[in-house]
Each structure stands twice: as C-alpha cells, then as structure tokens.
Amino acid sequence: MSLDKKLFLIATICCILVSVAHAFSSGDDHLFLIHNNVCVKSGNMSINQFTSLVKIRCDWNKYVDIVSDRVKLDKELDAYKKDLAKSATKANSSTEKKQDSIFDIEFHQSPVKNRDPKYQKIHNNLFKKMRIRALSFRKLGIQSIDTNAFDIECCKNDLERLDLSENQLKRIDEKILANLERLHTLSLAKNQLQFGENNFENNRKLINLDLSDNNLQYLPNNLFANLHELVTIDLSNNELQSIRACTFNKLLINPLAKKYFPTKVNLLNNQIECDCNIFYIERYLNIQLNLTCAGPDVYKDRQFRDLKYENPSKRCQYKTMDKLCRIAANEDDSWLTSLLIIVILILVALVLLFVSLVCFVKNSSLKKKLKALQHDDKVAKTNNEQKPLIADHNQQQQQQQQANNQPAVQASSSNQPEQIDKAK
Q: Shortest CA distance to 138 belongs to which of 198, 196, 238, 210?
C-alpha cells in the first residue's frame, strides 16, 4: 500500500472518530429534546469557528418531566447518541469539524396547566452538561429556586441573561446567583420579592437590572454595592416612599463614569418625596433619576427632571451627607476591621511574649556569666593581694635563715686556727 493511500485511510478513520466523539458530546442533547417534542429549534448562528449559538423554545412541564429523572434520561441519551454515532459512521459525512453548542433557552407554559409543585420550582441539575448563554422562565408560576439550580457547569462562565419575571418568587437567596459572575442582564420584575443587602454581591458584571412591580417598600443600603457597571436600574411600580442617600453611594467609583456614563434609575409610580436625599443622589452622585415627586407640597406631582433650577445645596449640605455615607459604609465593614485588629493585636502580643522570653533567657545566662566573671575577678584579686605577702614571708624566711647561718659560720671560722695549731 502506497504512502498516499495510508495517509488517506488514517484521515478517514480520524474523521469517523471525531464524528463519533462529537455525537457523544453535550452539544447533541438539544437534538434529543427536539426529537422528543420537548423543545423547538428557533434559531442557529455561528459565534466563532469553535462555537455555535442554538436558540430553542421548550415546554417547561415536559422539560421538567424528562430531565428530572436523571437516570432514565442518561440511558435514553446514551441510546440516542449511539444511533447518531452509527449513522455518522455509515454516512461518513462529517468532513467538517463540528462546533460546540451554547444555548439560549426560552421556556413557555404548557397548554394544559398543571399545579403540581414540581413545576413551580427550578430544581438542581436541570441544565447538566449544557452551556447556556440565556435563560427565560417568564410566566411559569415559579415560586422557589434550588440553591445550585444555576451551577458552575452550565452557567458560571457563560450565562449572561436571566429572565425570572412574572412569577411568584418571594425571596432570592444570595447563593442562587453566586455562580453567575458573567451575568449582565437580570429581570426579576413582577414578583413579590424583598431583598437583603448582599443579594447581588457576586454579580459585578450586571449592566441592566429590573426590579419593577415587586411591592418593594425599602431598599437596603448595600443592595447595589460593588455593581460598578450598572447602566439601568428599574424600580418603577413599587411602594417606595423614600430613598436613603447612601443607597446608591457605592455604585460608581470611577469619576469619568460618573460624569459621562451615569447610571439611570427609573422610580416612576412610587410615592417618593423629593427631599435632600433625592437631590444628593442626582446632583452630587450624578445618578439620573426618573420620578414624579409625591412631596413636599412645593414639588408635588412635578417631574424631578423639571427641578433642574432648584438648588437646595446649602440646606442639604451634600458634602456632609457624603461623609456620613462613607462613615456608614465603613461601619458596615466594622466587624471585619475589628476582627483584623484583634488578630493583629494577638499576633503582636505573641511576638512580644516570644521576645520577652528570649530576653529573659539571655538575661539569665548573662547574669550567670557575670557571676562567674565576678568570682574569677575576686579569686584573681585575692591571688594578687596574697602574692606580695607570700613574697615578703619568703623573703623574711630567707633573711632569718641567713641570720641563723651567720653565727655558725663565725664559730667555724674562729675554731679553724685552734684546729690548725693542734694539728701542728
């Protein structure tokens, strides 16, 4: 077999293997849903050479029924993908590289209404093995959402738009939205929601936020904290009577964004008084407000944008209000600061204790050495003092010995002539 034929055979086998692998990929799940009349394909476009966008419209009740039984679904998917793989192998039609799929999914209510609670909840694992760019649950009667419904696998790196409007939601736990780091459009309109301070803490890419028609009576100070890219906030058709000055204080940090790309807030159809807080938000923070004043009497029923010639800056003291908001923001983080200070103090105390122990050990060793040196000095001094005494004593002994020896010598010398005469 020639080299060209071998290369052609290898390329053919590779194409077949690629087609089989793609047939088993998650991108074919929507074909299974379409095949079972759960979804209808409404559009398809190529995003780039690797990814295609698939738009599908799905029956919510049928989708929940078929996806909630995960074991049965996996078996049916495996069988369906094997059939696709066989057909792809026989036809050998996959000469082009197949693209991965990312989905825009719009759910609609089934024609036959069913009040089963399982259809009133967005469950975990409904979007397993799928990459999703947009999700719409509009008008489905949703009452609750599981914490991990929008998990990391489907949504963290891809989900950009989420529509939960016109449902019966009363609360959105902050953990539900925690994975949606790329989310830029969120609609929670026409529910019955109340919000805590950290609901959107992890959604820092949000650009458009719709909270209209929720019967909101107040807004927590830090509801919009760290949402530095927000362009529009819709708070219309609620029951707000006042807006605190610090509500939008953490929205725009960049001064250029404040000046040239101010956030627009829709507050129409509320009962808000145009007080110093409202003037501070628009005039000092440069956030564009759209509202009709409910008071005081001098401004009642007037559009706030028509009050551009009003200047209550002396009465309202914007800089003082800004300082108070900054202090309040610091107080919100005071527990963290206090904890940090306590940890630092404990570390400093431990360091000081360690240093004091080291110093104590060194001082005790130095004291011992000093005592030893002092003892040696005393011994040396006593030795030095005793040396001249010993020398004097030795000298006296020598002198005494010499004195004792002198009479003996004289006697011997006097006896010598006598001995000589006797000898003669």
A: 210
| Neighbour order of strands in the sheet with 208-210 | 39-46, 51-59, 100-108, 132-136, 161-163, 185-187, 208-210, 232-234, 264-266, 288-290
Residue 279 has a pLDDT of 95
**Neighbouring residues of 360: CB distance < 8 A, sequence distance ≥ 6:** none
DSSP letter, residue 307: G
pLDDT tens digit sequence for 295-352: 999 999 999 999 988 888 888 999 999 888 888 776 555 555 667 788 888 999 899 8
Selection from 216, 229, 253, 245 nearest residue 328 by Cα: 245
Backbone angles phi, psi at 408, to 5 degrees: -65, -40
What predicted TM-score, i.e. pTM, was given to this entire model? 0.70
Please state, in angstroms and rounded to a whole number, the distance separating the CA atoms of residues 124 and 39.
20
- Residue identified by tokens 């805590």 is 196
Q: At what angle do helices 60-68 and 70-91 cross, to 10 degrees?
A: 90
Binned at pLDDT 50, 70 and 90, residue 6 comes out as low
- Tokens found for residue 83: 């059939």
Q: At 133, list the tokens.
A: 């760019």
Q: What residue has token string 């202090």?
A: 327
Q: Beta partners for 161?
A: 134, 185
Query: Of 37, 18, 21, 40, which Cα lies nearest the Cα of 81?
Result: 21
